[in-house]
Amino acid sequence: MRGIGVTWNAIISGYCQKGENEEAHRLFDAMLEEGVELGSVTWNILIASYNQLGRCDVAMELMKKMESIGIIPDVFTWTSMISGFAHNNKIRQALDLFKDMLQEGVTPNGVTITSAISACASLKSLDKGMEIHSVAVTMGLVNDVLVGNSLVDMYSKCGELEAAWKVFDMIMEKDVYTWNSMIGGYCQAGYYGKAHQLLLKMQESRVPTNVVTWNVMISGYMQNGDEDQAMDLFQKMEKDGKVKRNTASWNALIAGYLQIGEKNKALGIFRQMQSCCVIPNSVTILSVLPACANLVAGKKVKEIHGCVFRRNLETQLPIANSLIDIYARSGNILYSRTIFDRMSSKDIITWNSLIGGYVSHGHADTALDLFNQMKKFELRPNRGTFANIISAYSIVGMVDEGEKAFSSITEEYQIIPGLEHYSAMVYLYGRAGRLADAMEFIEEMPIEPDSSIWAALLTACRIHGNIGLAVHAGENLLDLEPGNFLIQRLIFQAYALCGKFEDASKMTKLEKENASIKSLGQCWIEVKNTVHTFLAGDRSLDVLYTWIQRIKGEVKGPDTQYGLCIEEEEREEIGGVHSEKFAFAFALIGYPSAPKVIRIVKNLRMCGDCHRTAKYISMTYGCEIYLNDSKCLHHFKNGHCSCKDYW
């Protein structure tokens, strides 16, 4: 019977190695029926295979069944279970299994200890990690390089670099993972100098560096904002280090440039990566897409989408979700909807991305229809959903429904509202003109209002003409951000409007003191694959200026019945023509035929006069204008704006 058992074990192992676990399980059951004596080896083969496939629940059932027929799980069984749970993000269960193993009197081996310590590293659980370290010392396993490496990694991730160094120093036969763990620990803690010294020591040792060593250092320097040092290492790794760059090497640069706000450099690295025939992966795409989250990057989004399509990455849920979000932000909500409709599997992020996209484009009815569809699928809304939905109710003027949505956050879904929800409620009341309700809501908030709350109230006061409350909102904004030049300018105008000339003169003095840091109106427009920049008051653009002056006489003046003239940007009489007007002129007179769509990004809130001009141009020239300012996304078409004149 023993020879038969060995044969069956070999067959079952073969199926497991090919990933055909169901067939292996069928043969396993057949062995039981034929009365073949099953030892722990057979059970362990199947348990290990299910754990490797992420089917930890089936593996656990097999272990329990094993015990029920009198076969005691050995160290290999327990190690397989602990390792399986740890590798499948069931970290706490893995540590519980390790505890159960010790209570059962089973002695762990080096692999068991390594898996358990790695689980502690994932949780950054220093206390449990130290307990397992003690077990390793008792068992005489600390000289095992695998155990030592896991301890260095665990202590590093828990921020205990002295303890990590002590373990590192005690390991006699260090391998590349030992060095990488310690270098990574120093980088994670921000000690890039020490990490670099260790890299040099590693190069002097008999242990050759690998691609992970260099990637950790490159990533560390980029996170520290030291792009020159990171790029130097990137160039040296193949020349001096004799290590071929991989996709992660390029990803480290892309993510780093984005982190320090260098979007164009990140996109440049992405293009260079492809020209070097390095295949982007999902991490690359998810890193580079946010660099295109603006109106003048629409073609770049399509370029990246093409790469996604060629690499067959569109079926990956995080990438599809990111494409929905970025297409909406770049002004292409129809592309977002197309991707959404094609997706066979959707999660809450998918729905939130499209709902949020429709809200930002002013299509509140569509956003609310999607929300109702989502509920029919019994998908539970989260924090992001409610912030979008309350904003949607604001746009369509459904205050009661917005209040109900806010109440349901706590009462129905047991979510604690955040500042984004309170801000949305102030926006809801403010847009409806219920300024007293907005102020009462702010006063009753259980958390301290931030700048977004007071900015929402100031917007409402500006639109509905409540100067007293505008001053109150502005003063609170100034308290929160005393060095913000734009807020200083807004509060100066509010003081002047309500006759507080003494306070206004103080603000004028403050403005003069901060003259060197004042914000200048600036915008960007993409025409024929080139992004052009325009500055407010540029006196060198004579041809454009002539066109602007002609249009100025045709644009209808402001409705003086309501509203306050409180603007982020200096009046054109003082600071010169605003930048977006130059962009309008450039797009419309620089080319033989008027473009159907004009896309502009602006750094400040557009003023009322520029807003009226954009509406006039969209109607007169039959074009659409997408303009993203510091407040919202405006879509001008046929003389109307998606913001419905509330921004």
From TrEMBL:
The keyword Repeat applies. Coiled coil: none annotated. The keyword Repeat applies. Residues 562-647 form the DYW domain. Gene3D superfamilies: Tetratricopeptide repeat domain. It comes from the Eukaryota. GO terms for molecular function: RNA binding; zinc ion binding. PPR repeats lie at residues 4-38, 39-73, 74-108, 144-174, 175-209, 210-244, 246-280, 347-381. One of its GO terms (biological process) is RNA modification. Keywords: Repeat. InterPro entries: DYW_dom, PPR_At4g14850-like_plant, PPR_rpt, TPR-like_helical_dom_sf. Belongs to the PPR family. PCMP-H subfamily. This is DYW domain-containing protein. It comes from Fagus sylvatica (Beechnut). The lineage of its organism: Eukaryota, Viridiplantae, Streptophyta, Embryophyta, Tracheophyta.
